[in-house]
Design goal:
Elements lengths: L1 H31 L5 H34 L12 H14 L1
Length: 98
């Protein structure tokens, strides 16, 4: 559905943003603590793992979005359009009120 597509698009954008921040933090830490102790190296590895998880989440969301787009009939491609069966019900409601 269109709502699911929009939700997935927002989720992808949010996760991309989080991934960018995490990657920047990772690069900064790697540069600042190149020859540091094991706890810092552990934190760097944890950030690398988080980046991997975020990348996988983006891939999963992209796949779900692709599937949702394929399932959406062309009539629904434009959010302003209404499914024809809904239009028929609304038309019938208007006629009943008149």
């Amino acid at each position: 559905s269109v709502l699911e597509q929009r939700s997935l698009e927002r989720e992808i954008t949010r996760v991309h943003y989080e991934l960018d921040l995490t990657e920047k933090k990772l690069v900064d830490l790697e540069q600042r603590f190149e020859n540091s102790d094991e706890s810092v190296k552990f934190n760097i590895e944890a950030l690398k793992l988080k980046c991997d998880v975020l990348r996988q989440h983006i891939a999963t969301c992209n796949q779900r979005l692709s599937e949702a787009l394929q399932q959406t009939p062309m009539d629904y491609a434009d959010d302003t359009q209404m499914p024809s069966d809904e239009r028929q019900y609304q038309d019938a409601d208007v006629r009943q009120r008149n």
